[in-house]
Structure formats: C-alpha cells, structure tokens
Amino acid sequence: MSLLDVTDLRVAFGPTTVLSGVSLHLDPGETLAVLGESGSGKTVTAQAVMGILDPPAVVVGGCVRYRGQDLLTLPERERRRIRGREIAMVFQDALSALNPVFTVGYQIGETLRIRDGLSRREALHRAVELMDQVRIPAARQRVHEYPHQFSGGMRQRVSIAMALALDPAVLIADEPTTALDVTVQAQILDLLGELRRERTMALMLITHDLGVVAQVADRIAVMYAGRVVEQADVHQLFRAPAHPYTAALLRGAAISGTPPSLRDLPSGCAFHPRCRYAAAVCRTVAPSTVDLGGRSAACHFAREVLVEPAAR
Amino acid sequence: MRSGAWRALRRRPVFWVSVAILVVVVVMAVAPRLFAGADPADCTLDRSMAPPSGAAWFGYDFQGCDVFARTVYGTRSSLLVGVLATALAGLIAAGVGMASGYLGGWLDSVLSRLTDIVLGIPLLLAAIVLLHRATANGSGHGIWPVVGTLGILGWTTAARVVRSSVLAARQQDYVQAARMLGAGHGRILVRHIAPNAVAPAVVVLTITLGTFIASEATLSFLGIGLRAPSISWGGDIFAAQARLRQAWWPLIWPSTFLAVTVLAFIMLGDAIRDAFDPRSR
Amino acid sequence: MSLLRADGLVKHFAVRGRTVHAVDGVSFDLAPGETLGVVGESGCGKSTLAKLLMRLEKPTAGRVYVDGADVFAMPARQLRRLRRDVQMVLQDPYTSLNPRMTVGAIVGEPFDIHRDVAPRGDRRRLVRELLDLVGLRPEDADRYPHQFSGGQRQRIGIARALALRPKVVICDEPVSALDMSIQAQVVNLLADLQRGYGLAYVFIAHDLTLVRRLAHRVAVMYLGKVVETGTVTEVYERPTHPYTRALLSAVPVPDPALRGRLTPIRLTGEVPSPTDPPSGCRFRTRCWKAQDLCATEEPVLGLGRAACHFPELLR
Fold first, then answer.
1. Which SS3 state, helix, strand or coil, does residue A38 take?
2. What domains are there in chain A, each with its CATH number?
3. Cβ distance of C88 and B177 shorter than 8 Å
4. Contact residues on chain C for A154, CB-CB shorter than 8 A
5. Which domains does chain C have, with CATH numbers?
6. pLDDT digits over A209-225, tens only?
7. pTM of the predicted model, to two decimals?
8. Which distant-in-sequence residues (6+ apart) come within 8 Å of B125 by Cβ?
9. Nearest chain A residue to C152, by CA
10. ipTM over 0.90
11. Over residues C172-196, mean pLDDT
C-alpha cells in the first residue's frame, strides 16, 4: 500500500475546473517528482493534499489517502494533526514563508512548542539541532538571527528545518529551488537527498526543471492543464516517453502554441492544439489513462509514442 | 484593468445612488428654473417666516424669500465654487506631485516640506485670514476669493497621492523601456506616467470636491465666504439659525441639501476607490 | 572594428554609507552578427552591466564604445542616433509594456519618438510588419497587453526593440519569466532574427543551457568581474576557471543515466557581499584551489581565458 494515494482528485475554482481527476501515489522512502509548467495544477495538488487550498478553490471530488485514511473526509482538527507531523511542506519563496519579525530559532521552535509542548529552552535547543541537520554553519549563533540576515539558500534550509521539526514521513517541496542560483540549487537538492536517506522520508518534489527531475527523482508524474498526463519510473520516462508532451519536453524543442488557460480548455485532449500526433479523436474525446505496465499515460496514441525512437 | 474597475463600480449601489443625487444637483445648478418657479430675489417682508404651503413648499425665510427657490439657486454657487476650487487644487497638486515624484532630489525635498507646511495650516483659520484681507479691500463678494483660498490651501492631500503614484509608476519597467527608446521627460510624463497615476488622484479629488463645498458653506456661514447678493447655503443657514425658534424650515432645507450633496461626492469617491482596489474585488 | 566595446566598466553604488561594487572592471568586444552570452548568478553584476551598456546608468569608471564612438561622451544628437543602434529586451513581460497602451501604440512608439525614421503614413504598415516578424497577427495591434500571455508579451517587447533596426540588442534575462515550453520558442525567434537581420546580441542570463543555444562567445561573471571568457565550446567543454567548472557542474543534467557517474563540484560557503568583496581573487573564499597568492594578488583576464592564478589546464 502506498504511503500517500491521490485518486481522481478534482478541484474547482468557481466555475473553472483546476484539477480534473489527478491520480498519483507516493511510496515510503521514494522521491516522486511532479513535473509541470505554470497552470498545470501541480501546486494546487500539493495544497489539496495538505488541506491548505486558497478559497474559493475547493475540492469537488476524489480522495487523498494517507496510510489508508482519506484525509478529505477527516475533520479539520484531525487534518491539522497530520499536517506537520506526518506530511510537511516547503515552499518556493522562503522569504515570504518566514515571518520577518521573529528569529529563525523562534519560528523553528514554534511548531515544537505548540505541538509537542516543549519549553522555550528545549525548543531552542532542538532548533539548533535541526539547523545543524540542514547544514547551516554556526547554528548556535545563527539561531538568534532574523530571516533577512540569511541568504536565499540559507533561508530555504531554515524552511526545511521547520518542515522537519516534527519528523514527518512525507515532505512536499513545492519548487524549493526555483528561486535560487544554480550552485545553491545543487546544494539544496543534495541536502534533500541526504535528509531523505537519513530519515527514510518520502519526498514529493514539485518542479518544472527536467534536469532536477533527472538527478533526483525515482518516479515522475507529468502534469498538464490540470491532470496527470504521464507517470513512470525516471529511467523509463527519459528513455522512452509515452506522452507527446513529455516527448516534446525531453527533446528540448520549442513546442508551438501556449499552455491553455484553465478557463478555456480545448475540447477533447487539452494538449491537442500543440501535439504532433493530434488526430480527429483527440479533438473530441478526452483520453483516459492507458496502463502500460508499471507506467501510464493519458493519450490516445500512448503506445505509438512509446515506441517512437527518442530523437535527442 | 479599466473594464474590470468599471464593472466593479457598476455593481455597487452606492455608486448609483451618489450618481443619481449628483445628476439632480448638477441639473439644479445649471437650470434652476426647472425646479423652482419662484424667483429667489423676490422677497417681501410681509411673507416673512410664513410656513410651507402649496405656493412655497419650503416656506419663507426671515426676509420673505422663498426658501425652496433660494435653496435651489444656492446649488449653483456651491457647486461652482466646489468645482473651480477643486480644479485649482488639482492643477497645483498635479504640478507639485509630478515634479516631486518624477524629478526627485532636492526639489522633491523642498516641495514635500512645502506640502507638509501647507497641510499643517488649519484650513478655516487660514481661510479666515485670507478672505478677511480680501473682503477688507472692498473687493471679493464674488466667488473667486473663495475659490482661490480653498484651492491654494486644499491641494496637499492630492499632491501627496500624485507624488506616490508617480514614484510607483516611475519604477515600472515600461518607463525604463521608454527611456531606452530615447523618449524625453515630457513624453514619459504624459504618455506613461500620468495615465497610470491619475486614478488615485481622481478619488482624492472627488472627495475633496465634497469637502470644499462644505468648507465654502462654513465660510459663508461665518460671513467671509459668499455674501449677498450671491446665494449660498452657508449664508442662509447662518441667517436661519439665529431665528430657529421662530421657524425651522429656513434652516432644515439648506442644511439637508448641503449634507446630501457633500455626502454624495464622498460616497462617489469611496465607490471609485473601492472599485479600483483589486483586493476588494 | 568591433560593434560594441566595453572597456574597464566599473559601477559602484553608495548604499547607506557602504559601497556596493556591482561591476568592477568588465571589458569585452562584440562583433556584428555575433552573440555574447553573459552568465552568472545573482549578485554578479550582469543586470547592472546591461544598464551601463544601455546608458541607463553612468559608470563610475570605464567606457562603452559603439562603432568606435564613446557612448558617455556623446552630444545629444548622436545620443538619439545611438538609441536606434542599441536596444534592449527586458526581463519581465508583465511590467515592460504600458498596460494602458495598445500593442500597436507600444510597438509604434519608437517611430513617434524618432520621427525621422519613418513618415507618418508608413507607421501602421511598419508596425504590422514588425508584429508579423515576431509571430503575432496584424489585428493584435488593437489589443492590450493584458490580453496576451507572457511569451506573447515578450514577443511584443522584441518587436518594439527591433522597430528602429538596431545593430545590437541587449537581452536582459529575456526568457527567465517564461514557462519552459515557451522559452525555447522565444530563443528560436531571437536566433531567427539574428540570422535574418545580422543582429548582434548581448544575451544575459543565469540559465547556462539556454545561453549555450544562442551564444557564440561567453563571459562568466562573478561578483562584478569577468572570470572567464571564450567561445561557447571552449567555456562549456573545456572550462578553465574553477568557478566556471563549479557552475557547469551544478547544472542538473537531464539524463538519469548519468546519475552518480559525474562527481559534482559543490561550492561551500556563500557568495560574499558585493559591499565587501574579498581581497585579491574574489572567488578565493569558496575555491578549493585557493592559495596565499590568491589573497594578495588579483588575477587578471589578460591573454589567458580565465582570471585565475591556477586555471585548470585540461588536455
């Protein structure tokens, strides 16, 4: 049984469907990369799992099972208990995720004080430990500093320390390195990899960067226009993609057209206006997810795309 | 963006109510005869303090003038003063604000301090001083001294608003793009900065209009604003309040018209501001 | 003679009593029709460099020459001429277009400012041609920026930059704000335009993979200085400066088969503050090869490709 199992998740924003049936799963100790561009719905998926959707966005269907229990049916009190302790999240912009008027030690310790009932001194001690674990040098002194005194990469480490405070089994990282320089990104990705191994934690990494995915992920879920269009093991995906969108991304070629607006999705398959393989059926019928044995793709021509030699 | 604001504006009942009131007010100011058949200058003492009747809906005041007619004709003065004073204040505010915000440096410091000083001067006290001098010279029974006084004392808030909008607009990339193309300062100000800085100023000036009308009434009440033969709500209120015990109608009607007009302008300004605020949509 | 030449450009800002050494001695040459890629991470000074090249900032020292003429010593008339020769594409497609102007007005504004370039009657036609050049339709001229996507807005910006037929276009992170699938489109457009019109580009970006696509030569910047230059093949395949090597090593390769095969170079520490750059070689605080010499003597770019006392000499 998977640790986290999202099945047919639907989220709507008023009349607009933002997620139209997202299904993916995360097994213990693995790294799942959720790959997609802006508007693909990857952040909304993470927010729905965490239960922190911005109103008026609301879940209108599907289920999110954690260790077998559907989180969406739980009362808010229960969800809050799971949030942080079992499933934690790290956001893209550490600067706005951190409160500028409190020290980082206070903020890291806050979770511990509130949830575990630690005293201020104990929480501070633990905060220093966590900062050490995320490799922040001179943690003992820096624990008393404010967010603006840290560089972008260091702030992200602080965010990660906060997320790890209660020792969660799942860490969702939403574009954690997009705003960082490439050398800092490399450091943070290394850190996430080490932490995952040390704690046997599962990682859901949301990103738009193929390079990051290739280096870090075990499995990949590719999202486009509010649904998962392909899921596969990372080696399989890169060797032989089964969805035209994935294939185009891997080729690095320019894809004509623009990502569709969710308010105005094309009929049938949302990708058909930009797809080389588009046929009449693609314009009228939305493809269902084709099972290709251990992997899947939502395309009428998945098998054809799969066997096409990858032109790199 | 503009169309979004317009739609948001249309949805607000406050907007329609204030527009309706102001349309009536403006028509009343432009064509008073449509409303009041009687001549406000037709005053005979034997009708003094006569109560409201079929002939005169608001009754007669102490001088025997038709209160309704006077109130309706008074709209013109109030509105005229309000509009002209706001125009003057607006011009000064635009000039000061733009120079301050766009040119910056020592000019900005000087103009900002000037703005602070003028802002700190109590409007009525300064108006009393200025108008007293103007009327003492024998001139100034017309509207221009009042217009001038209100204009040169009331531009400060609008200037500050213009300055901050200009500062914000100046940072925008499209302004840099225009500079790169070789656009001169004039072109940048007119085509790029002004259109984007105008909206907040409109809000402030609309509300300012309302407060100017109230200020004019206050000055006329004190006897230093508009005086006879100009008809002013403030003046009428002054005359009426002295004899309130005898008759309430000469007081209530000008006061009500004044309050409603001022309120309408302020409501309109509020509605426009809310419509432009993306957060409230 | 080179088309664009930067000679010892220096720009220091005074901020709250301290001096920010944004650009500290940058020189390069750009020939017609060529692309110089300028790469570096945040704080390296590349954006300030762009502003200096566009004459939007005055340098603390150094000069910029366009066609041999000193840009900062030009009389007003020549300056107007300069604006036609050197143009810029800005980074943020969402703020680089005036939201209250139609696309046609935006793209046509260069003609309004430089009236001698095209007679009034021609302008509409020229605007339509420019829109067509960047892949937009003629009817788009009557629409407003907010009706377009990021990639399309960037095309509008490019059309505007090309209106006066410049010789050099400074591209300051032109695709950083766009989605992956759109980035390639815009880069391809820039490449096509270069081939078609012989444009020279200074392509400033932090995305190394993108720069590789478009650039002929590359300059790597760190803390206000150019630490390595060379052709794109030289810099990407045979980097000699330790920072370049670390930078290239940090870029995640989109090929899982290579996982674990390449030993990555990981820089420790953080980028020093530009208000207080290290003495001697600025990179020494994070360099694994640093020696005493690096702290006392600043390495110069000179004849070698890298400003380093101990450059990597590969076979």
1. coil
2. 4-220 (3.40.50.300), 241-311 (no CATH)
3. yes
4. 270
5. 4-296 (3.40.50.300)
6. 899 999 899 999 999 99
7. 0.81
8. none
9. A258
10. no
11. 89
